[in-house]
Amino acid sequence: MGRMSSSLSVYLLDVAATRALVGSRDEQLLEVIRSNFGDELERDDEYFGRLIADGAPTAYEALCAVVNGGPFSEKKEHAFQYGYAYKRLCSLTGSFLDNSCFTPHRGSWLSIVDEGLAALGVTAVSVEEFSYADLPAPLPYTDVPGCGEWTPRGIARALEQFEETKRAVDASGEAPPLEPEVVEAVMQCLGWMRLAAARPGFGVIGFRS
Fold first, then answer.
1. Residue 72 region by backbone torsions, left for phi larger than 0, else alpha for psi between -120 and 50, else beta
2. Which residues form the DUF7691 domain (predicted)?
3. Which of 33, 105, 133, 168 is the most exposed place for a label (fewest CB within 10 A)?
């Protein structure tokens, strides 16, 4: 199965407000995207040109369907465009977070980082979640891009878990043995969480592709 390498794009944003863009019928938002990001949409259409020639929606058509809550193509092989359209909404309304520990990555790296988080007591969030197909309804299922989110509540709990472990480590003087690159990735995740925790209602939405 192993794909060559994957990337993770992670955004800091108001999770509920972002999900609410799906089906919002916000024509003004669509117009702003078409006016300001037309070149980007065209580039994506070139990249997926063969699939579009076979009937997949263009980047802008997919965006319109996501913002209007449909209609969506009934063909499963077209569903990826709606996932990328939702990713584009996140990139335009959120702040891109440093993903240097995760792009590119190979194999089971996300689950390895999750094991590192768990070793530090953090189980309320998971980077593997960003591989899941957790797009807001009514978007059709697609496995690429993967999508997951860390809610404000999950992030608050994860930071509490980390502080509890940190206190225990400080008291015992014994830290869990982790590889340096895992420590670096875990610290990057904690950085995302702290940025979100500083802003009420903010969380993290990530996409793996």
1. beta
2. 4-208
3. 168
